[in-house]
Amino acid sequence: MTQAYIIDAVRSPVGRKKGSLAALHPADLAAHPLRELFVRNDVDPAAVEDVVWGCTETIGGQAGDIGRTAWLVAGLPEDVPGVTIDRQCGSSQQSIHFAAQGVMSGTQDLVVAGGSQAMNRIPIMAAMTAGAAYGFESPFIGAVGWDARYGDEEVNQIKSAEMIAEKWQLSREELDAYALASHQRAHIATEAGWFANEIAPLAGLSQDETIRPNTTLEGLAGLNPVREGGRVTAGNASQNSDCAAALLIASEAAVKAHGLKPRARIHHLSVRADNPVWMLTGPISATRYALEKSGMTLDQIDLFECNEAFASVPMAWMKELGIPHEKVNVQGGAISLGHPIGATGSKLMCTLLNALERTGGRYGLQTMCEGGGQANVTIIERL
User: Fold this and answer.
1) Which of 31, 184, 253, 348 is the most buried (most CB within 10 A)?
2) Is the pTM of the predicted complex or chain greater than 0.70?
């Protein structure tokens, strides 16, 4: 089987709610890392065989195949196609998988993967509720097969995060302590310049503006829960944000033909699913599956990225699998750095790759919870 290599990975800084990137057209945001990828790498963009792009809420400026639109907005060759995919929060991690699979199958040699989300311009859940005018209460309710299988049970990520906190006995205090650590880690990483190599400045912004270095446990404790009597608050959940990220994936033949230097090799990729009402537990079974499928053990993985959609998600995942926090999200996560839905998978891969290079680690594993109870797992080997 042909190997798939990561040549480079670059992203925009993360813009906060009503922040520096809020006014950008979604296609301009998405075009930024695509353009930067070819500023940073001496390869003819016309050699790219496809652009695989993750994005959700594909309405308005994100509609009409933004993966294709962004490539054109970036001023890149018209004859290179693009496709937009939606695996909810895992959309651009899946884009990496599809790009790598194209290379590994031998049908493609040079593919761009990535994703974007302009959450200020098009809010989360906008596409989910857009069907109301056409008589759809939700994408699920009313489908005969869905109603027969799941009834009218609420499908809601806050509810899922609360269910997880209760099942894995995670207290409000523990969730808040995890959130504080996320901000502390992200602040240390930013001050030390650990994100510098992955970020291409945009609109006058050169670093992530979602980090709150003055966060305290007292401040977090003072926040009201989203649901009465619950444990999930705005402080221990991920932030809505704007970001775009892109990776260049190549075969060995493309590496030789274009004189490229790979930074990592895709060692394993898989995706699994769990109950859609529980929704956010997928990374647990998906990680077990990935390790079994790859023949690896947890102690062989040097660093982990598990998306912090809510603090309860990585905390339950670590508790269930016995993974030490010291190896997980070492530069912070979505609580401090934002969760720009369609961009998050490729954004996290930028960070995982650079963190492995910084620490000298060999293997990194990335996973994230996704709508529908799904979860992608990618294992990379630093070269």
Assistant:
1) 348
2) yes
